[in-house]
Amino acid sequence: MRSNLFPIAKEAWKYIAYSALAFVIFSILDIDLLQIVSFFLILFFIAVYRNPERETPMFQDNSVVSPVDGIVISIEELHSKEYAYKIEIESNYLNVAVLRAPLTSSIENIDMKKGAKLSTSNSLFKKLNEYCEIVFKDKNSNTVKVVHRLKQSFDNINVNTSPSQNILQGSRYGVMLNGVTTVYLPQNFRLNVNIGNELKASQSLIGYFSKK
Predict the structure, then answer these.
(1) How many whole angstroms separate alpha carbon 7 and alpha carbon 106?
(2) Is 11 helix (H, G, I), strand (E, B) or coil?
């Protein structure tokens, strides 16, 4: 991902600029109510697109950390040769929206699909909503698949990385406002999370790959 060390993610700049322009126009026209609304919109966009610096804890080389801020809402064992566990993490507007690499790896594949922005209560949520699937592979050929799926959101999923790119654990690679992230983990993995755990991107340990 291109360096983005500003305290506000670059995806917010256009929204802040439009809101600031509206604030100036309504101030000139002396429309107090709309002036207040545009001011609070500026604060809202600054808050939801905040981009804090985080120190990544010194986990072992074979560790996997959370790619998002949110709550673990489900953990499922899979009967598959490729993946043994599926973890779902739900995020909302109060969480930091910046996405971070779960492990030091190369990007094997990115599959982005535009779509609807239905709520999780809708039966078509997983079929129709916008999503981005990213496959990470480390130097030991361990593979982790991460699927980001939007809930009701005014912005799209923004991913700023590409296939074959090398990425360090904890590095920023995109932004998702209000969504559900599914992490698929292989057979040789030991989980370190439970349902209900609150996770922080790059700082919360999901678990370790077993040594081969």
Answers:
(1) 26
(2) helix
pLDDT higher than 70, residue 128: yes
What's the CA gap between 17 and 10, in Å, rounded?
Answer: 11
d(Cα 170, Cα 102) in Å, to the nearest integer? 6
Note the pLDDT of residue 209.
Answer: 94
CATH architecture of structural domain 63-209: Distorted Sandwich (2.70)
Residue 173 identity (one-letter amino acid): Y
- Helices H / strands E in the chain, number of each: 3, 14
For residue 8, the SS3 value is strand
Per-residue pLDDT for 40 more than 70? yes
pTM here is: 0.92
At residue 165, φ and ψ (nearest 5 deg) are -75, 140
